[in-house]
Write a structure and sequence with these properties.
By secondary structure, the chain is α+β, with helices and mostly antiparallel strands. The chain contains 14 helices and 12 strands. It has helices at residues 2-31, 35-71, 86-122, 142-148, 156-162, 164-172, 213-254, 257-262, 264-291, 304-314, 316-321, 341-358, 392-395, 413-423; strands at residues 126-131, 137-140, 178-183, 188-199, 202-211, 300-303, 325-330, 336-339, 366-373, 379-385, 427-433, 437-443. The strands form 3 sheets. It has a 5-stranded antiparallel beta sheet with strand order 2-1-5-4-3. Strands 7-9-10-12-11 form a 5-stranded mixed beta sheet, covered by helices on one side. A two-stranded antiparallel sheet has the order 6-8. α7 runs antiparallel to α9 and α12 (341-358) runs antiparallel to α14.
Length: 444
């Protein structure tokens, strides 16, 4: 190829020199008034100029053909090298190489597109991509069409006509955020997430839409199963001895007055036991009512540091009695929290009481209340202790109502904490290492 290029350059230079010489002789003969020879040499100059023009214009003609093919994305064209002039063989070879590269890239992109399209068609999550300026839909999968019950979605105006609630949620949803829609008519719950990006100077918005009814129903059923399991266990623990004692008392009463007088103490003890277990069942029902009592919260702004100090002051006697060293750590002493102070205080009291109980066998009991901002700017409050920790098989059950590992526990404390945090659109979770300690996280 290099030899061909050098030959082409040499021919080009030779043509240029010959044209210059021809024009020089034409002018010389004309000055000498040898007009006939001057005319003949001029004709030769014209021929030389034409040959030079053909030599120069030929590559441009090839480039125009290649540009026209590229304009219409026709990369299937093959430029014949064998029959091409020597000066164009190198150029055509490069064109063929470019076409082959573009064809390879196009095939890879098409394969990736088909692969991605198949994946998006298989998933249950609906996906919608549209131009934020015009509202024209660039791409939509079958799952989203099924969710919205639309066979064809060319633009968002059609979504607005079908369901204005969904349309407003799609348009107003900020990038990186999620929201849940309740469609009363269809009894559906849709979770929407959004992301934006810019391609070729145009802003596009990507919407992911998922019908979460089934997932919520499954989680709800699982929660009810756990709840009923605990409730059944508690009720059976109370009903079984009551039934047994009642049968025994009935039998003794049937034996007559003489036996009744001799068994008076036993009867008294049996009746007291029945009373105690009945009161236990009533207390169980009362705690259940308490669990469902909290339905709203009155938010106010307050200092997190003041909240910590009030809780530790309230539980100071218990901490001193157990010789527990309680510290407060705040990266920002002026950190403020907007929440229902009374409810959040109740959460911290429950967690601190649990920590005090976990530290009862520790040689150097320590507890830390801390607050900080996470990477998303959300407030995190933690209650840390170096107590006995929580076993792995118990960890997943600690927030289930009425579940307790304590002999005298009601199993309602952490369930209330969970409900209070959910009312504040927050969450609570726990990390623990048996024998090393436990950390409860409150995320607002």
């Amino acid at each position: 190829m290099m030899a061909m290029q050098q030959t082409y350059r040499l021919r080009y230079a030779l043509r240029l020199v010959l044209l210059f010489v021809s024009l020089l002789f034409t002018a010389w003969f004309f000055v000498k008034e040898i007009y006939i020879v001057s005319i003949l040499v001029f004709v030769v100059s014209v021929v030389q100029a034409y040959l030079l023009y053909k030599l120069v214009i030929l590559p441009f003609s090839e480039i125009e053909d290649f540009a026209a093919a590229a304009r219409y994305r026709d990369f299937s064209r093959h430029f014949n090298i064998d029959k091409a002039p020597a000066g164009l063989q190198s150029l055509r070879s490069d064109f063929n190489l470019i076409n082959q590269t573009f064809k390879s890239i196009t095939r890879e992109k098409e394969a990736q597109y088909q692969y991605l399209q198949k994946i998006l068609e298989l998933i249950q999550t609906g996906v919608l991509l549209y131009d934020t300026e015009t509202g024209n839909v660039s791409w939509v999968n079958e799952s989203l069409k099924k969710i919205l019950e639309l066979p064809y979605i060319p633009n968002l105006q059609l979504v607005e006509k079908k369901n204005a609630i969904v349309y407003n949620a799609v348009v107003n949803l900020e990038p990186g955020q999620s929201t849940v829609l309740l469609l009363d008519a269809e009894q559906q719950k849709l979770m929407l997430s959004a992301a934006t990006f810019i391609t070729e100077g145009k802003s596009h918005k990507l919407i992911a839409m998922q019908n979460i009814n089934e997932a919520l129903d499954e989680n709800e059923a699982r929660s009810w199963q756990k709840l009923l399991s605990v409730m059944t266990h508690e009720i059976m623990n109370s009903v079984a001895p009551i039934a047994s004692l009642a049968a025994t008392l009935k039998q003794q009463l049937q034996l007559g007055n003489d036996h009744f007088a001799s068994s008076k103490d036993d009867l008294k003890l049996g009746i007291e036991t029945i009373q105690r277990r009945s009161e236990g069942l009533m207390q169980f029902a009362a705690t259940y009512r308490t669990l469902n009592k909290i339905t709203s919260s009155g938010k106010q702004s307050f200092m997190v540091g003041d909240l910590f100090e009030n809780v530790l002051q309230l539980l100071g006697p218990k901490l001193e009695q157990r010789a527990i060293n309680a510290d407060i750590i705040l990266k920002d002493p002026l950190m403020k929290l907007s929440a229902d102070r009374h409810l959040i205080e109740q959460v911290l009291i429950n967690l601190v009481l649990n920590a005090i109980d976990a530290l009862k066998d520790s040689h150097d009991p320590k507890m830390i209340l801390s607050g900080y901002f996470n990477n998303d700017g959300r407030i995190i409050i933690t209650v840390t202790d170096n107590g006995a920790g929580i076993a792995a098989d118990v960890m997943e059950k600690v927030f289930i109502p009425f579940f307790s590992t304590k002999a005298s526990g009601s199993g309602i404390g952490l369930s209330l904490c969970k409900q209070i945090m959910l009312l504040h659109k927050g969450n609570i979770h726990v990390k623990s290492v048996p024998g090393s300690g436990t950390i409860f996280y409150l995320q607002f």
